Amino acid sequence: MTVSWIVTGLGIIVSLLGYYLTPSAWGYGILGFGLAHIVLGVLDMFRTPTRVHY
To answer: Whole-model pTM?
Structure first.
């Protein structure tokens, strides 16, 4: 769960950086990269961990 929060937090920071760099092409790319990390971090929070015991 901690890793999910870290990924989401970094995604927010990167998204803000990309937002301030828009309307350049680099800004839109960085913004999309950050938004993808936010989505993946939130989705990872809802995933059930699989534990394999041998």
So the answer is: 0.79
